[in-house]
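Researcher: Sequence recovery benchmark, item below. Answer with residues only.
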């Protein structure tokens, strides 16, 4: 297990010391910049380490990488447990993960770069992006023989629709009608990677979807989140304008709830309702909390995850971002979500203590 927690003083003054602790045969290494910072931040660090180590020891997760940062820099990073159950290889800070739908935020940034360049607009019909989507069909139901009943869409699909989950596309894992349609029509499953499916990615796809398919380390994805936290710029590179990043974090679906995803394949996903009873909407590329969350995040925080139980959040009010990366199914695993909440809460406590 490797972990790092940096206080605000650490980030600003930049001197470093090294401390190591050992627990139950697992070595924990923590970097510090000053002895007094080590003393003041030891309790938050120990709490975070303890929560994550306990989850691994209890086999709630085989292994996990977690990281968090503020607008001042890295706050915490840790790796616990193993990558693979059968050979015991340790989880490390540079472990590569399948991030699945965490790809969506990356795709949205690329799309918004094109908007900034005037090559796309949020209100342009999709045919200007991909002619194959120029004549969308809407599934109204099934006739008595089980054949799908389709009608032409009443309006063109726009980029805003695509970036806010309101274009009408769905995943079989959460849509019984989609499961039935695939079976009745012979359309390739979303997991096939065939162009006609226009969905997920296999190992040799015919197309590369923006909704999933990327691999990343925790550090690489945290750098991406830090870029958004800094208004589109990070480490001397500007990817987006600050006003574009702010636009992405606004509510783009009005009073339409983000909704609950009911599973059709329990082996792949549980029912998904991250904030029961809360007001949740879609920004551009990620989910938006309209109210403060139960573990410290502010109203206006954006977040999402990948089906292998990787998750992130970005809080533009308190200037905090973080991620948690195990690698297991089914999605929305309750033990992982509990750990995610505990980690988030511990990070906000560490920020307050810094």
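Model:
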């Amino acid at each position: 297990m490797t972990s790092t927690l940096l206080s605000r003083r650490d980030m600003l003054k930049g001197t470093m010391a090294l401390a190591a602790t050992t627990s139950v045969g697992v070595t924990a290494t923590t970097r510090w910049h000053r002895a007094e910072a080590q003393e003041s931040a030891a309790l938050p660090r120990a709490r975070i380490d303890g929560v994550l180590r306990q989850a691994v020891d209890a086999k709630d997760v085989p292994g996990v990488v977690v990281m968090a940062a503020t607008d001042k820099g890295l706050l915490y990073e840790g790796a616990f447990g193993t990558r693979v159950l059968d050979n015991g290889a340790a989880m490390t800070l540079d472990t590569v993960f399948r991030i699945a739908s965490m790809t969506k935020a990356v795709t949205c940034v690329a799309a918004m770069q094109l908007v900034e360049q005037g090559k796309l607009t949020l209100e342009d019909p999709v045919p200007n992006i991909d002619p194959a989507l120029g004549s969308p069909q809407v599934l109204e139901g099934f006739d008595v023989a089980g054949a799908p009943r389709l009608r032409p869409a009443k309006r063109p699909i726009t980029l805003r629709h695509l970036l806010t989950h309101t274009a009408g596309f769905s995943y079989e894992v959460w849509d019984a009608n989609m499961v039935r349609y695939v079976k009745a029509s012979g359309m390739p499953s979303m997991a096939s990677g065939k162009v006609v499916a226009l969905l997920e990615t296999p190992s040799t796809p015919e197309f590369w979807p923006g909704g999933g398919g990327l691999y990343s380390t925790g550090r690489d994805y945290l750098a991406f989140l830090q870029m958004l936290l800094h208004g589109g710029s990070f480490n001397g590179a500007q990817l987006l304008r600050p006003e574009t990043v702010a636009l992405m974090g606004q509510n783009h679906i009005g009073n339409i709830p983000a909704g609950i995803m009911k599973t059709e394949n329990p082996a792949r996903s549980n029912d998904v309702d991250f904030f029961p009873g809360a007001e949740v909407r879609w920004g551009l590329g990620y989910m938006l909390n309209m109210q403060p969350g139960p573990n410290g995040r502010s109203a206006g925080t954006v977040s999402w995850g990948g089906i292998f139980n990787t998750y992130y959040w970005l809080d533009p009010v308190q200037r905090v971002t973080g991620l948690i990366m195990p690698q297991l199914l089914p999605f929305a695993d309750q033990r992982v979500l509990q750990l995610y909440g505990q980690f988030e809460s511990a990070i906000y406590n560490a920020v307050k203590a810094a």
